[in-house]
């Protein structure tokens, strides 16, 4: 019995010791685990602090770069604005130069054209002064038959003076209409009359510069197109550019071929659907395929230095586009060249 009780006590002590050892092991493992977790959290916190510090440094660096880039972009913007301002000023000066050039050409033609009616007015005025003197003399002598004849001559001369005065007045009005600044307001305009008046001005201008210049001119104006809403001063400048170029082309070809060549200019207007079509054609020197792609570019010209600014067709293109229209060209070297304008019939 005593041995049995001793065995039980040992077994109990052994079991308790085992439990204590197991608990102690578990406690040690738990403590080690907690320490590792604590160490992990500390390392994680340190890492987060490092990342936070790194992000702050990167943000500061990025802000510095953004500030420097902003200053650089602002400087470039100011430079571009200054360049744009200077470009606009230059463009305005060139446009004004082109306007003055076309006005100068027109003035030369008008000066030549207006001289004829002025000569008639001056000559008939002198003749009328002599007739009045003779009329007074006839009245004193009582020769009524001679007086009546002199009065008839005087009346005819005054009618001639009146007619040539109106012609000169029309020429001056056409010049003023062309030279005044466009208001930007469209108004119903007789394109046939505008084209014909500008055509005559351009032709007289060429004749004044070259006394030997001559060409056949055919016009086919459709009276049914009525009045079209356009800015007449602007469209007149387009017509003048096209007519001047046509006369220049046939004159160049005439100088090269001489009597073997018959220059011809044709101007046509007609209704084409909802558009009015204006075509200016010539059988002059023609335009090569390479050049025809560039003719509406600003500053492009095939004329010798001093004879063209290279802005005429470019401005014409812009004017037609501003009117909601189109301008096209077809040409062959040494053959027919046709500029066709399409303008909307209604605004």
TrEMBL record:
Keyword tags: ATP-binding, Membrane, Nucleotide-binding, Phosphoprotein, Transmembrane, Transmembrane helix
EC number(s) stated in the UniProt entry for this protein: 2.7.13.3
UniProt xrefs under Pfam families: HATPase_c, HisKA
Gene3D superfamilies: 1.10.287.130, Histidine kinase-like ATPase, C-terminal domain
Gene Ontology terms, MF aspect: ATP binding
Reactions that this protein is recorded to catalyse: ATP + protein L-histidine = ADP + protein N-phospho-L-histidine
Histidine kinase domain location: 109-347
Bilayer-crossing regions: 12-32
Protein name: histidine kinase
